[in-house]
Amino acid sequence: MIQRLPCVQCGDLIHPDTASANAGLCMPCKGGYRDRIEEGKRQRERDREYAKSAESLYWQDLVRRVHKTSEGFNGLRAEEQTYFAVSCLIGEVYNGGFDQFFSNSSGAYYLLALDGLRALGADTCAALLLKAKEVLFVDRRVPIDREERLELMPTFKDESATEWAQLEPLDKAFWADPDKLGERCQTYAHENQLYAAG
After folding, report:
1. Closest to 101 in 3D by CA, of 117, 115, 85, 116
2. Which domain holds residue 149?
3. Residue 6 in 3-state DSSP?
4. What confidence tens digit (pLDDT) does each residue in 144-160 have?
5. How many domains are contained in the chain?
6. Fewest 10 Å CB contacts: which of 3, 83, 124, 184?
């Protein structure tokens, strides 16, 4: 059996040939990516903890109720609809920008998300959403029907549409989280007793 040696930087056990070839360093430490590996481990642990939180469990139940019950979205209380619409907006914009929000089924909740941002006092994000709507739909209303929305969206038809360049700074400004939306959503949820604090 080969006697493994501790990496001189992180202490992980490594093969003696690796230690000899790399001045006692494991490959992640030698390559400079050990910090990314460790941060990935910490993030996975945070994700596991979050998955057990009241907020996460409530969100999962809300999604189930919207998509797997006969009442769907209309079966939610007004406060739940607001929370759902704003949360969909946040998730879609962080994942793929305002274009993704409007092009997916979430775009049907545009007006509720806009009103929800205002109700949360997230005026900067509300203004960004309104600007993104104007880039994509100009002065037209945003259709609830997804196919109708896509027909009106220049970015859906043309990957080189100039609107992409107009959306990019709006996406980046939203991603900067100027209104601290996560905190505002938690406060809103607690004030409206959507889920238990914890």
Report:
1. 85
2. 72-191
3. strand
4. 999 999 999 999 988 88
5. 1
6. 3
Residue 148 lies in a domain: yes
Chain-centre distance for alpha carbon 55: 15
pLDDT over 90 percentage in the chain: 92
Using the structure block, give the residue that is written with the tokens 């929370």: 83
Q: Residue 110 is encoded by which pair of tokens?
A: 């545009």
Question: Within a domain: residue 147?
Answer: yes
pLDDT of residue 157: 85
Q: How would you label 53-76 residue by residue, b for 16+ Cβ within 10 Å and e otherwise?
A: eebeebbeebeebbeeeeeebeeb
Between CA 89 and CA 168 the distance in angstroms is 16
Query: What global pTM score does this model have?
Result: 0.82
| Residue 127 to residue 7: CA distance in whole angstroms | 52
Quickly count: other Cβ atoms within 10 Å of residue 186's Cβ.
15
First to last CA, the chain: 49
